[in-house]
Amino acid sequence: MTKLMEWLAAALLGAAWLTLSFDLLGLSLPEPWRRLVWPLPVYLLMIFGCYSLATVGFRVATLRDCEDAARELQEQIREARKDLSRRGLTF
Predict the structure, then answer these.
(1) CA distances from 17 to 14, 27, 34, 85 (A)
(2) Where are the domains of the chain?
(3) 62-83: burial string, b at 16+ Cβ within 10 Å, e else
(4) I need a surface site. Which of 7, 59, 64, 74 has the fewest CB within 10 A?
(5) Which helix (H) or strand (E) covers residue 28, if one does?
(6) Cα–Cα distance between 74 and 4 in angstroms, integer?
(7) What is the pLDDT of residue 82?
(8) pLDDT at 87
(9) H runs (alpha helix) in the chain
(10) What is d(CA 20, CA 32) in angstroms, rounded to the nearest whole number?
């Protein structure tokens, strides 16, 4: 989904919420529906936060160790230290 589509979807949802909340089209929703629609953005924000927290937690829990990359990085660090020591930098 492109950024344009994301913004258009958000604008469409916002326009629908404004229309239903402030009765701009004269639909005269029943009172229980009106009480449901009014806090809907807060509910959606809470659901998004829970989903984001669960996704981050799952990704952290299933993070794989990259032992080959770690060894390669340590070797590069050793090479860089040798090179810098030859140039006069002390650690």
Answers:
(1) 5, 13, 10, 64
(2) 3-65
(3) eeeeeeeeeeeeeeeeeeeeee
(4) 64
(5) none
(6) 43
(7) 95
(8) 92
(9) 3-21, 31-37, 40-61, 67-86
(10) 13
| Residue pair 12/20 in contact by the 8 Å Cβ criterion | no
What is the radius of gyration, based on Cα positions, of the chain? 27
Residue type, 63: L
- Distance, in Å, from the CA atom of 14 to the CA atom of 59, rounded to the nearest integer, reads 31
Residue type at 6? E
Alpha-carbon span 30 to 67, nearest angstrom: 61
Say if residues 13 and 33 touch (Cβ distance below 8 Å): no
**What is the pTM assigned to this prediction?**
0.62
